[in-house]
C-alpha cells in the first residue's frame, strides 16, 4: 500500500499559511518541485481564497486540507512544518506560534517591519534549537547569485567593497500594488530589503555607519499618505571602507529589473545587469530586442524551488538551515534607517556597536 | 491510507528504460518535476547500472523496482507508460514491444538510424490509437524555442524562409564521446537531427529538394573509421524557396553552443545566439566574460521537465501528444541525406514527392 | 599658390595650449579630423614637451610653431582661436587672457575648481559676444549620448526623472594619476563633473536641493592627503522630484567604464551599460569575453573630433557654440557640494534660488 | 606661401574617379580624415554628378577640379594617385590606364567580375613595381576585424579551420538596389566577396576543393532576369580540412548585418555577431532594444578612413600596400564558382592546383 517514500519516513508533512499570490505559488512549488514534501494543509482568513482552494483539482487530488484559521491549521494531525506566506504584519506572530507548537518554519521576508517583533521571533527560534526556523530571502537561492557568491568567496575580485543593487518592479496599473503598499513598511523595507541582504551577504556583514536616502513620486501619488515614494535611491556607508547603494522602483516600463554589481579591489561581478526573459532576440525594423520578465516570479521561480528543497532537506536530514532568522535583523535595521532618512532628509548614523548616534 | 492523488487515479505509473547518463536524469526529472508521475520501475542490461540503482537512496525510498531486462520490466504490475532511453539501435524495437504490451511510450530521439525501422515503429503506434506514443524532440519544449515559435506563428517576421541552426558540443577529451559515436549514425543523424527538426517545425515541413554537406576531423581522427567527422556543415534546399543550413561540432572549447536563427520576410528571430550559463558577468583584467553551459543538460534541463510533464498530462487527460512519432521520419530522411552527401561529396536530390532523384 | 580652402578664407587658424597627454591628442585631432582647421601654434611651459614637439615630424611638416609661453603664443600672427588644454588651475585665467586678445576659445573642463574664477571667465566671455567661447564637455559630442538625448527629447521615455551615471577609470599603477590628482579638486569635481553635466542636460537643469556623498580609499591611500577618495558614491536630489546618483572610481580592473541610465516615466535609455572595446568576442575555455576600452580616449576619441569640428564650424560660420561656458557653473557647484559632503559627512542643501541653507 | 606640409613634399595629390554614393564619400574621407592627402580632382561621366560637384562648397573651397572624363582627369597636372570608385565593369580598365600613366591606384572591390580582366590588371600592376596598386577590401581595415586577426595570428584559438561569414543588407525598397544589381555579377560576387576574402585571410589562403550554393528570391523577383537571388547560402570546402560558409542577403528588416565567426581548434573569435548602431539601449514596454546600422557605410566608415590613410602613407613613405591586387583573384574565383553552383545546382570542384575538375 502506501506510496512514495512513505514507509521510510522520508517525506515531510508541510502546510502553507496564506493563499495570496505567493501562497498559491508555494503550494505549487511544493507539489511540483519538492519530491520529499507532502502538502497536507493550507489556510487563509480570506473566504474567497479558501473557497478557491476547496474547488481546485490539485488540492482535491493531493488531499490538501483547507483551513479558515491559522491556529486550527497548526493542530493538523501529523503536521511537521509551516511555510508562512501571510501578510508581513503577522509574520512574526505566526512564526512564534508555530515554534511554540513544535513545528519547523520557513518564514517569508521580512520577518516584521518592527524590530522588537523581529527580536521576539528570533528569541522564540533560539529557545527551540531542535526546530529548523528559516528566513525566506529567496535571492540567496538563485543560481546566478550563488555563482556570483562563489566567485567572490573564491577571490575572483579581491576584497569586495562596493555593492550596487536594484529592485525595480514593473509599473502596476491595476491598483493591486497601491493597496498592498499600505502595510509593507515603505519601499526600502519592502523592496530594498533584498538588496541590503545581498550587500551584507557579499561583504560579510559590515557594521553600518551612515544611511541616506531620497525619493520621488512619479506614478503613485497616493503613496504619500503612507509616507512612501515610488522611486528611491539610498546609500549606506559601512565601517571598514565599504559602501552599498540602491535604487528601488515601482514604476518600470520594461519589466522586473533586479541587478546587482559587486566591486572588489581586483574586479567586479555583475548579476543580471541586462535582464532577459529568455534566450530570444527579435530583429525587425526597430532594431534588435528582447523581452524582460514581468515579475519577480518569472525571475526567481527556480530560486523559490531551491529554497523549498533546501528547507525540506534541512528538516529531513537535520542540517543547518541556509538562512537563519537572525539574518533578517540587521537587514531590517538598515532598511528602516533608509526609510527614516527618506522621510526626514537626515543622515542616520550608527556607531561601530550599532547604536544610533546623532550629529552634533 | 494511500497518499497523494492516489485515490483519484490521477497518478501515472511509469518506468524508465535505460540507466545511462540520460536514463538517470529522466528518473530524477520524474521524481522532482512531475507531480503526477510515479516512477515504479527502471531497467538496464548493464550490471554496473542496475547495481548503482539498487543502492541509490531515492530509488529505495520511492520504491522503484530495478530490472535487468527490458522485457521483464514491461510486465511490471500496474505499469502504464515507458520512457525509452536506451541506445539508439533498440529505440524502435523497444517502442514496438511497449506498444504491443499496451503501454504509452515516450521515446528519445532518434527513433532509429534506419528508415525502415522508423516506419515499423510508426505503424505499430498507428495500430494502437488508444495509446500515447511520443517522440522526444526535447528542444520543442524549451521555453525560448516555444516563445520563438509563437512569435513566428503570430507573424512577427512575415514568412519564415531561412533557418540557420547549430548544435556544437563541448570537446570531450575523456573518450566517452568517441565510444558513443560508433553507433549513433553520424554527426548529421545524431546532432543535427535536432536542428533539422527545428527547421521543419518553424517552416511548416517543406519538402527537401537538395542536401549537401562537408566536414572535417580536427580532434577525433578515430571517427574516420565510423565514416564520420567532428565538424560538419550542411545545407538543405526545400521546395518553395526555403533553405536551412547547419553547423554541427564535437569540438567547442567554450561549452555547449546551440543556436537557431529563423529569417522571415519581415524580420528574424534568434534563439541563444550568445549562449550564457546564467546571468553572471565577471569584469577583470581580461575584460568582461560570462560562462557557457557545458552540456545540453544544463541548457535543456527545464525542457526535459516540460516534456515529461506534457507526456504525463497527455496520458492522464487523454490529450494529443505534443510531438508524434511521424515527426521523426522526415527529420531522419534529411539527416541521412546530409550524412550521405558528407561521405560521397555529392548533392543528394529529391523530387517534390520525396523520391530520390539523380542528376543527369 | 596657396592651397586648400585658403583663398576662400574658410580655414581657421588655431593654437593648442598645453602639450600634455590631451594637448598632443588635440593637435592630432585637428590635423587629422578637422578639414577646415589649421594648427598654427602650440605652447607648453614644460621643456620636455616643447622639445618633443620641435622634433615631431608632423609639427615640422605642418608648420606648427612651438612656444614656451602661453602669452607669447597668443601673439602669433594670424591666430584666430585657442584650444586650452593646460592644467585645471589655469583654465580660467587662460580663457580670460585669450578673450582679451580677441581670440575664440575652446576650454577643457572644468573651467576651474573655484566658483569665483568660473564666474570671472563667464563674465569675460559675456563681455565679448563676438567671440565664440565654448566649454569642453566632450561627452555631449559622443554619438551615443547624442542619440540618447534625441530619444529623450522626442519623448521616448516620458518625463526623465532619474539619472544614474558612472565614471570609473582603469586603475593606474604608474603613479601618473596620483600625481595628477593633487590639483584636480577631488573625485567629484574631476570625474563626476561629466556625469553631473549629463544629468543636468538630460533633465533640463533642475535646481539642486540636497547633495550627499560617501567614499573609500582602496588603492591610493596617498589621496587622503589631498582630501580625496578613490571611489565615491554621490546622490543629488533636485527640486521637482528629480534625482541623480553617481559612482566615480579610479580603481577598475577591466577598463574605462562610463555608463549612464536615464529613467523616465515611460521607459529608460541606457548608454554603454556593457562597455565594449569593439565588436570582437572570444569564446574559449573561460567562456565568452570581450575587451573594454582602457581609457576615456578610446571611448571618446570620436567625440573629441566632433567637438573640434563643431567649434571650428561655429567660428567659421558664426553659429552659436554647442556648449556655453555658463554650463559649467551649476555643474561645478554640484561637484563641489558632493566633494564637501564627502569630506564632512553632512548633507549639503540649497534653496530653490540656489542659495546654501543649513539644517536646523 | 603655401601651407600645410606643402613645402616638405609630404602631401599626396589624389583624384577620385566616380561620384556615385561611394565616390562622394571617398572625397569626404580624404578631406576630413587624411591629413596628408590633397584631393585635386574628381570625375564622373554622369552630368548630374559633375553638376552637383561643381556647386558643392567644399569642392570649391578646397579647389577640387571636376572632370567629365576619366581620361582627361588622368592628365591633371601634379596628379599622383587615383582612387577608383567607378562601376565594377570598368574597375580593371581604369586601373590599367592609371598605371600606364604612372599613377598610384587604390581600386574598389571587385577588380572585375571577369577573371581575365582581373589577371590583366594584376599584370599591369606587376609591370610597374614602382607604383602602389592596392585592392580595396575595406573590412581588412576595420578595427574589430584587425583585432580578431591579431588574436587568431597570436594563437588565441589554435588552428583556424572554419569560417562563417554573413553579408546581409537592409532591404532596399527604393529600386536603387535592383538597378545596381544588373551589373554586379551576382550576390556571391558582389556581396559574399568580402566574406570570401575574410575566410582566406583568416585561414591563410587554403586552396578551394568544392563550392556549393543555393538561393531564393523573396523580395526582388526581378533579379531572376539577372540570374541572381536575394538570399544565398554557400559552402566552400578547402584542401587541408578547412571550411567556410556564407549567407548573403539583400532583404534584412533590421539593418546591415555583417558578422564573422572564426572557429579554431582551441576556441572561436566572433566579430559583430550582435550588430549595434551605437551604445544605446532603450527599455520600454516592448522590452530592451538597440538599433542596428542601416548600411555598410555606418558600419565601415572608420575602416574606409583607415584604408585611405594607409594607402596614402604607403605611397608617401614607399611602403608595401596592405592589400595587393593579387588578393582579389582567388576571391573572385571562389565567388564565381559559388554563383555558378547557385545557377546550376552542381558542386563546382577544383584540384589542389586550382584547376576545375568534373565529377565522374
Automatic annotation (TrEMBL), chains A, B, C, D:
InterPro entries (UniProt xref): Gfo/Idh/MocA-like_OxRdtase_N, GFO_IDH_MocA-like_dom, NAD(P)-bd_dom_sf
Q: What protein is this chain from?
A: Gfo/Idh/MocA-like oxidoreductase N-terminal domain-containing protein
The Gfo/Idh/MocA-like oxidoreductase N-terminal domain covers which part of the protein? Answer: 12-134
Family of the protein in this entry: Belongs to the Gfo/Idh/MocA family.
* Gene3D superfamilies in UniProt: Dihydrodipicolinate Reductase, domain 2, NAD(P)-binding Rossmann-like Domain
Task: List the molecular function annotations (GO) for this entry.
Answer: nucleotide binding; oxidoreductase activity
Q: From its record, what is one biological process in GO terms?
A: NADPH regeneration
The UniProt record lists the keyword Oxidoreductase? yes
PANTHER family associated with the record: BINDING ROSSMANN FOLD OXIDOREDUCTASE, PUTATIVE (AFU_ORTHOLOGUE AFUA_2G10240)-RELATED, NAD(P)-BINDING ROSSMANN-FOLD SUPERFAMILY PROTEIN-RELATED
Gene Ontology cellular component? Answer: cytoplasm
Keyword annotations of the record:
Oxidoreductase
Q: Where would I find the GFO/IDH/MocA-like oxidoreductase domain in this sequence?
A: 145-269
Is the keyword Oxidoreductase in the record?
yes
Amino acid at each position: 500500500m502506501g506510496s512514495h517514500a512513505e514507509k521510510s519516513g522520508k517525506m515531510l508533512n508541510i502546510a502553507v499559511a496564506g493563499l495570496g499570490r505567493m501562497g498559491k505559488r508555494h503550494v505549487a512549488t511544493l507539489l511540483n518541485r519538492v519530491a520529499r514534501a507532502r502538502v497536507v494543509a493550507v489556510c487563509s482568513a480570506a473566504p474567497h481564497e479558501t473557497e478557491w482552494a476547496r474547488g481546485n483539482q490539485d488540492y482535491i487530488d493531493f488531499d490538501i486540507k483547507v483551513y479558515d484559521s491559522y491556529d486550527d491549521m497548526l493542530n493538523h494531525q501529523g503536521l511537521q512544518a509551516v511555510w508562512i506566506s501571510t501578510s508581513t504584519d503577522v509574520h512574526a506572530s505566526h512564526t512564534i506560534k508555530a515554534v511554540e507548537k513544535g513545528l519547523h518554519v520557513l518564514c517569508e521576508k521580512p520577518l516584521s517591519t518592527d524590530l522588537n517583533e523581529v527580536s521576539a521571533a528570533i528569541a522564540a527560534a533560539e529557545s527551540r534549537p531542535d526546530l529548523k526556523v528559516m528566513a525566506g530571502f529567496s535571492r540567496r537561492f538563485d543560481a546566478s547569485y550563488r555563482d556570483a557568491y562563489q566567485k567572490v568567496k573564491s577571490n575572483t575580485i579581491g576584497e569586495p567593497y562596493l555593492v550596487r543593487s536594484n529592485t525595480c518592479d514593473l509599473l502596476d496599473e491595476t491598483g493591486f500594488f497601491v493597496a498592498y503598499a499600505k502595510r509593507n513598511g515603505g519601499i526600502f523595507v519592502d523592496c530594498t530589503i533584498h538588496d541590503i541582504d545581498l550587500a551584507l551577504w557579499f561583504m560579510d556583514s559590515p557594521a553600518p555607519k551612515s544611511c541616506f536616502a531620497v525619493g520621488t513620486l512619479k506614478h503613485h501619488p497616493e503613496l504619500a499618505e503612507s509616507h512612501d515614494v515610488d522611486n528611491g535611491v539610498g546609500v549606506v556607508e559601512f565601517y571598514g571602507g565599504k559602501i552599498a547603494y540602491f535604487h528601488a522602483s515601482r514604476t518600470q516600463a520594461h519589466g522586473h529589473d533586479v541587478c546587482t554589481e559587486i566591486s572588489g579591489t581586483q574586479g567586479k561581478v555583475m548579476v543580471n545587469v541586462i535582464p532577459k526573459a529568455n534566450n530570444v532576440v527579435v530583429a525587425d525594423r526597430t532594431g534588435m530586442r528582447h523581452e524582460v520578465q514581468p515579475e519577480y516570479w518569472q525571475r526567481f521561480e527556480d530560486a523559490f524551488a531551491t529554497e523549498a528543497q533546501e528547507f525540506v532537506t534541512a528538516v529531513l536530514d537535520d542540517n543547518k538551515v541556509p538562512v537563519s532568522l537572525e539574518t533578517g535583523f540587521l537587514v531590517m535595521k538598515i532598511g528602516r534607517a533608509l526609510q527614516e532618512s527618506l522621510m526626514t532628509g537626515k543622515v542616520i548614523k550608527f556607531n561601530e556597536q550599532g547604536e544610533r548616534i546623532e550629529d552634533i
